[in-house]
Write a structure and sequence with these properties.
184 residues; mainly alpha; 9 helices; 55% helix
Length: 184
C-alpha cells in the first residue's frame, strides 16, 4: 500500500489497514467497470458516500458506528476491486467469505464490530440497491423500468441524489472528510 503497509489478503490484520489507503484505492476503483457517463468514472468511494447518506435518510438517528459501517461497506474493494456478482460466482472460491474476512479486519481496525447486526446489514444493502438504481439510471444508461427490475423501486420519500462523478482526488478527499466526521 502507499502507506508502506503490507496486507496479507488471505489473513488480513487490522494493524495493516490504513484509512488513507482505503480512500485512495476506492477513489480509483470504478463502479460499473467504468461504463458510466461523465468526465470521470463513478468511483466506489463516491458510491460509499451516497450509501452512507441514504442509510441516514432511511433511518435517522442511526448510531455513528453503523453509519461508519455503511461508509465502509465496500472497503475491501480498495485492494480487490469492484467485481460484478456473476464474475464473483464464476471465480470458484468462496468470494463472500474472502471479502468478509477483509471487511471484518477493516471494521476491527476502526472500532466497529466485525459482524454487522443483521438489521443494519439489511439497511445498508437496501441503501446500496437504491444507490445502484440511481447510478444505473443517471450514469450507466439504464431505463427506469430496467433498473427497477434489477434494484427495486427507490422510496419516493428519499431525495434523489444528483450523481456527478468526481475526480479521484476529489472523491478521496470527500471520503476521508466523511470518515473523519464519523470516526470521532
Amino acid at each position: 500500500m502507499l502507506s508502506g503497509r503490507r496486507l496479507d489478503l488471505l489473513d488480513p490484520s487490522p494493524l495493516d489497514i490504513e484509512i488513507a489507503d482505503i480512500a485512495h484505492g476506492l477513489a480509483r476503483v470504478a463502479r460499473w467497470n467504468g461504463q458510466t457517463r461523465g468526465a470521470h468514472p463513478f468511483s466506489v468511494a463516491q458510491h460509499c458516500l451516497v450509501v452512507e447518506r441514504l442509510v441516514q435518510e432511511l433511518q435517522p438517528g442511526l448510531a455513528r458506528t453503523h453509519r461508519l459501517a455503511a461508509l465502509l461497506h465496500d472497503a475491501p474493494e480498495y485492494v480487490i476491486g469492484d467485481l460484478i456478482s456473476p464474475f464473483k460466482a464464476a471465480v470458484g472460491i468462496d468470494y463472500k467469505d474472502f471479502e468478509g474476512k477483509l471487511l471484518a479486519a477493516i471494521h476491527v481496525r476502526f472500532g466497529i464490530s466485525p459482524h454487522t447486526p443483521e438489521e443494519v446489514a439489511a439497511l445498508i444493502k437496501r441503501a446500496d440497491c437504491i444507490s445502484a438504481f440511481h447510478e444505473a439510471t443517471q450514469l450507466a444508461g439504464f431505463e427506469a423500468g430496467e433498473a427497477r427490475n434489477f434494484f427495486g423501486q427507490p422510496p419516493d420519500r428519499l431525495r434523489t441524489p444528483k450523481l456527478v462523478p468526481l475526480s479521484p482526488s476529489e472523491a478521496e478527499r470527500h471520503f476521508l472528510e466523511r470518515f473523519r466526521r464519523l470516526a470521532v
